[in-house]
Amino acid sequence: MIPILAALLTVVAGSAIWLLIAGLRPVAAPSSTPRRSQLTRPQRKQLHLIAIGLVIGLLLWILTGYIAAVIAAPILALLAPQLIPRSTEKSTIARLTAMEEWTRSLVGLLGATASIEQAIIASRSSAPKALKEEIGMLAARLQSGIPIEQALTQFGDDLDDTTGDLLTGSLILGTRRRGAGLARLLEGTAETIADDVAARRQIEADRAKPRANARFITVIAVVVIAVEFLFNPAYVEPYRTALGQIILIALVALFLAALWWMNIVARDPKGQRLLRPTGDAS
Known about the structure:
Distance between the termini: 66 Å
Number of strands: 0
Shape: elongated
Low-confidence stretches: 1-12, 27-37
Number of domains: 2
Helix content: over 70%
Structural class: mainly alpha
Radius of gyration: 27 Å
Order of helices and strands: HHHHHHHHHH
């Protein structure tokens, strides 16, 4: 009866914390000028994760007597989604595929329009979803009278990718030379991007299995440890002491450090840009 009552009290306490966080959120002032929230969506998500982890930690502390859970659970809830090895290459491949599709569409539009500027503006309506925002901004710059080389340079900054610089450089070179050679230049660029996409897909397929193994091992480790603490308390009895809980916190920290290291190793390296260093938008 006492554990059930303690669990209910923990749930009530967690709900109170959740309501407190919700009450601290800024409320839009009743005026015609909209106010932006002081907390971004990622920050609100982090607060939610911390609150959930704190509730779970309090519940585990009351049920098992391990006060270290109050510290470990919020940290695990906050960091685990970022530390479990995962791929970011799929979004990159989608953007590269969109670059190829858009380049080929420009080749088709060049035969029906008078200039590359008009082709770019006309391509905005059928732009691939992965690049719709960047292409829309490029078309808007051209319509506002910005010189095409400057607009294309800003377009390359928006893409912020080595292959994007290849596409941007081809477009800049094409605007200087114009003529029938521009279509052939863009066709060659599209073929190069297609080869890059094929290579990256092969690399991603090779990397997928180690990432899946890392996630599987992580889940197994967490489940085994949880089962030991919940159903075999005699085995983990030494961790109930003050020194034992300090050691337990240190072991959790080492576990998180191992996950962080695996995530760093599995992270896709960002290539150096061709037109300017990455992140330099001057």
